[in-house]
Each structure stands twice: as structure tokens, then as C-alpha cells.
Design brief:
The protein is an alpha+beta fold. About 60% of the residues lie in helices and about 10% in strands. It has a four-stranded antiparallel beta sheet with strand order 4-5-7-8, with no helix packed on it. A two-stranded antiparallel ribbon has the order 1-2. Helix 2 runs antiparallel to helix 3. The longest helix has about 70 residues. The chain starts with 9 loop residues before the first strand and ends in an 18-residue tail after the last helix.
Length: about 450
Amino acid sequence: MRRTTLHHFRLPGLTAILFSPLFFSPAWAQSDAQSLPIPAKVAPAQALHLETAIRLALSANPELAAAGHGLQAAEGARIQAGLLPNPSLSVLVEDTRDKANRTTTVQIDQPIETGGKRAARMALADRGQEVAAAGLAARRLALRAEVTGAFFDVLAAQQRVRQAEELLGLAQGARRAASQRVAAGKISPVEETRAGLAEAAVRVDLAQAKGALSVARQALSALWGDSAPHFGWAEGRMDVLPVMLSPEEMEKRLQTSPAMTLARAEADRAGALARLERARRIGDVTLSLGSKRAEELGRNQMLVGLSVPLPLFDRNQGNVIEATQLADRARDELAATEIRLLTEATQTHERLRVSVLEAETLQREILPGAQGAYEAASKGFALGKFSFLEVLDAQRTFFEAQSQYLRALADAHRAAAELDRVLGAPIPTSPQTTIAPGSTI
């Protein structure tokens, strides 16, 4: 299992950016949300956790609600498929003008299905229910993946805003220090101008980061139908990285994924339709039973009849050919779906592996070095050993490394959420982050 260590970086006069202290595991996204209470709308000053966001989306997402209505419609089709055909009642009166010669016939006709049509029709409706249920499960899992990705986008955007605010504080401190050194005649006024320009650039970056955060919050709240975000902030951890899966484990989970289940259900439904069309080649018979009253004879006569269609021209041959070809197409699509999902899972897993490797490399090697270089440049500038340009360069390198680390973490969690959608099973995470000895939170 993988471990990652989150160091606490300290900057001169300011505290380095920390991630939120809550522990998060994407495995929650696989729990049955229906067994959990539906939360109310998140208050504007309230923190939003991932599990709450998932439950809100599962309870209020319009597309998921539409898929639920589709399943209910399939249940109605199953009820209808099991019903027997209705009988018909007919009354025939001959010679309505002369009652003495009038003949009245009352007859009931009952169609009788042959060739196993009713059983084939019910089997087709059962397959339709399976397709609707598999489609609903796939949509639920896709929605979980969307919520997870959007939630981590918000987390990452919040961290970028904090980084920009931290950088702005450093830029303001550097500008004040440059002003003091200019006033003392130790450096050129050009250095103060450069410090002011650097501060203005950071303010622009902060505005852009706040705009990106607003967009990310809007995209997340839209998943449960809110036109505007009503939560205070997203709360979770990004430094708990997913664990890599073996190819054998991925293929095993893929076979039971909702997408594969849906493709199999579609193939089974197409096969059931072909069997129903073949059963319809045999015509239904009609049994007739009635009574005939002949006034001229003064007595009633019992009528019994049987009607059998002659399949001379229409033997349902066209529908049989169409349904058979559709069944063949569904089987080919099933094979294509398996290949596509395996390819998609492999590519997504590779993205996850690269993102995790990048995050671990940045956290272990690049971030400590960038922090050390920045601290050395800051101290050297205070002692007059380095120019302000060197301080800016070291500062930019350090914060770019932090931004790259944050981006790698976000990419890893998005890839894990996508794998969760494709494989239909939670992607495990490493144990809770170990803090380096001597660090403080």
C-alpha cells in the first residue's frame, strides 16, 4: 500500500498552506446512499463534505430522477406483458322488421395465444426491466464520479485561492522591505518598482483563482439542481492518494461493472425480442361460444366455433429477420463495449499512476528543495547578498511547485473517480497521511 508524507512548510513570517484536516476516502462513493438519510440543503455558512454532496446529488439530480421513471415504466410494461387478451362479445339480429322470423345470435369470442407468445412477451419485458435497472445503476455511479470530480475541483480551487492569498502576503511584505531598504539607501529604487509590479501580478492571480473557485462551486451545486451554491466551503483531504490496481483486478471488476451489466442486458433483451418474433409466426386461434334464438323455430341453438388463421402470406418473416439481426448487433456491441471499457480503464489507470507518481515526487523531492531555496534567497536578500529578482525567482519556483503538487493531487482523485465509474467498485486509498517527524499542523 502507498503512503505519502505531507510536510508542513514554513515561510519567513507566514505559515505555509495546509490542507484541510478531515480524512477522506473515495470508497464512500460506493456506499448505498438510499440507506442514508437525505440531507437538507447545506447552509451558506456550513462546510460541505463529499458524502453530503453525493447524497444531495443522488436525491435531487434531474437526470437520475428521469432514469428512475424509466425503471418504473419498465415495471408497468412487465405487468402489461403478462395480461391475457380480452374476449369480445357480439350480438347479431337478423330480420329486425318481422319478429316472427327474427333470429338473434349472442356470441363470445376468446382469442387464445399459441406458440408461447405470452411467455416470450413476459421474458422480453423482464429483460427490459433489467436494462432499465442497469441503466439506473450506471447513471448513479456516473453521477457519483461527477460529484467526486467536481468536489475535488472545488477543493483544489480553494487551495489555489489560499496559495494566492499567501503569495500576496509575501509580495506585500517584500514590497515593504524593498521600500525600507530604498529609504535606507541600500538598494536602487528599481527594486522597489519590481516589488510593486510583482505584487500587482499576484493580485491578478488571486482574482483569477477566485473566479475559478466560483465556477467550480457552481458546477458542483448544479449536480443536485441548485442554480447557485448554498454551501460555505468544501471540506476534505486531497493528500490521501488512491492505491494502484493490478490488471487482473481491473479486469475482474470490469466484468461486474454497471456498464457491462447494461450491455449484457441489452443483448439479452434483443435475444428475447427475436424469440418473441419467432413465436408470432404461429397465428392465434379464436374460440367462439354463443347461443342463437330462432323465433320461427321457437327454440335456442348452441353455437361453438374455432377460428384458425392460415399463414399463407404473412408469416412474420420480415420481423423475424429484423429481430435476429438486431440480436446479432447487440452481441457484437457487447464485445465492443468490453474492449472499450477495458481500454478506457487501462488509460485512466495509467493517468492515475502518473498523477500519483508526480505528487509523491513533488512532495518528497521538489517541494523541500524549492522551499529551501526560497528561504535562503529571502535571508540573503535581507542581508544584502541577493537581488530582489533572485528572491522573486525562488518564490515563483516554490509556489509553482506547490501549484503543480496540488494539480497532481486533483488529477489523481479525478482519475480515481473515473475508474470508480468504469469499474463499478471503489478505488482503495492509502492509509492516513503520515506527518514528518518534527512537523506541526
